[in-house]
Design brief:
By secondary structure, the protein is of the alpha/beta class. The chain has one domain: 3-Layer(aba) Sandwich (Rossmann fold), CATH 3.40.50. Strands 3-2-1-4-5 form a five-stranded parallel sheet. The radius of gyration is 15 Å and the shape is globular. 30% of the residues are buried. The mean pLDDT is 96.
Length: 130
């Protein structure tokens, strides 16, 4: 069974489409309906920031279909390594994206994102745009 890790950009686009009408995020899910969907806890937090009440049905309906990936020691070690490497090369990106990248690398699953520019700095990550 296919397994995918989702970035915050996907959640935001999916939520917008629920208001404006189906588009790329919905169609992506339709084409991958049998995939296991994972959400890094960092993406969960970024998405949750947009809601004043985390019991809001709009929030719950989106995140409940994802299996949350917590940060553990192995992900933290990946984070440290990739952060050190990008900083040395002058290519550092935001820390939340670094945590999401570390999660995708540790689990070796494709990352579904609209933010291809930032995540392309990690050639080992299989990116799945939508």
């Amino acid at each position: 069974m296919e397994a995918l890790i989702f970035d915050t950009t996907f959640l935001i686009d999916f939520q917008r489409e629920m208001k404006r009408g189906r588009d790329r995020a919905h169609y992506f899910l339709e084409h991958h309906r049998d995939a296991r969907a994972y959400l890094p806890i960092t993406a969960y937090g970024e998405y949750a920031e947009g809601f004043s009440d985390l019991s809001d049905p709009a929030f719950v309906s989106v995140v409940e279909s994802f299996e949350i990936i917590e940060i553990d020691r192995s992900i933290a070690k990946r984070y440290a390594g990739i952060t050190r490497d990008l900083r040395a090369r002058g290519l550092l990106i935001g820390s939340n994206d670094l945590w999401i990248a570390a999660t995708a690398l540790q689990f070796d699953r494709p990352l579904v994102t609209r933010n291809l520019e930032h995540f392309a700095r990690f050639p080992e990550i299989r990116l799945s745009g939508y």
